[in-house]
Amino acid sequence: MTAPDIPIRAMAQADLPAVQALHLDSWRHSYAGLMDDAFLDGPVVDEMAGRWRALPSKDDVALVAEQAGEIVALALVFATHPEGPLLESLHVRSDQQGKGVGRRLVSATTAELAARGYDTLWLEVIAGNRAARTIYAKWGGVESWPFKDVIAGQEVSAVKVRWSSLTPLIALG
After folding, report:
1. 54: which residues sit within 8 A by CB, 6+ positions away?
2. pLDDT tens digits, one per residue of 113-131
3. What is the pLDDT of residues 96-110, one digit of tens each?
4. For residue 41, which of 27, 52, 23 has the smallest C-alpha distance?
5. How far is CA 164 from the centre of its chain?
6. What's the total number of domains in the chain?
7. Are strands 70-78 and 61-67 parallel, antiparallel or unpaired?
8. Backbone torsions φ then ψ of 160, nearest 5 degrees
9. How many angstroms separate the Cα of 146 from the Cα of each of 71, 134, 139?
10. Which CATH number covers residue 127?
11. Taking a C-beta distance cutoff of 8 angstroms, is the pair 67, 96 a contact?
12. DSSP H helical segments within the chain, as ranges?
């Protein structure tokens, strides 16, 4: 199945256990060596449980992609963030990476933002996450200088990535 065949829909309350598991697996895979191993082996479970206790606000954009009835990717944008819409989470199951699932999900997410009247997007990414940074640059994101940030109590070097227009992201789909 190619990415264009993967259904994308709004996240539902019943999706939260699968979303939490996907987010947890993604952090453990993507942040190995970038965050403390002891944190990724244990306390991150509580962090994810807290994040996915309930659906995000109705003001947020929360979408999932499915394959064969299983959630394989998630995107969450805090649309009303003071700095503009923040792509807080974009996670694709490791066996689906490189197949266009994330690209399609970002396209759908930004199309929803545009329909609500927004035209910008930003995110933070751990500076050492070269794979994500490469994708964001390919999608036209502009990076800030690295800065120190705290993610789930862990100090990391991070960069902000910004898009001054949603048009190129919508076109990814």
Report:
1. 13, 16
2. 999 999 999 999 999 999 9
3. 989 999 999 999 999
4. 27
5. 18
6. 1
7. antiparallel
8. -95, 140
9. 32, 15, 19
10. 3.40.630.30
11. yes
12. 16-30, 37-41, 43-51, 101-115, 130-138, 167-170
Whole-number Å distance between alpha carbons of 130 and 11: 28
Question: Rounded CA gap, 20 and 18, in Å?
Answer: 5
Where in the sequence is the domain holding 106, given as residue range(s)? 3-170
For residue 3, name the pLDDT band (cuts at 50, 70, 90): low
Which comes out higher in pLDDT, residue 37 or 167?
167
Find, among 151, 98, 95, the residue nearest to 126 by Cα: 151
Express the helix, strand and coil content of the chain in percent, nearest 5 each: 40, 30, 30
Query: Which amino acid appears at position 131 of this protein?
Result: A
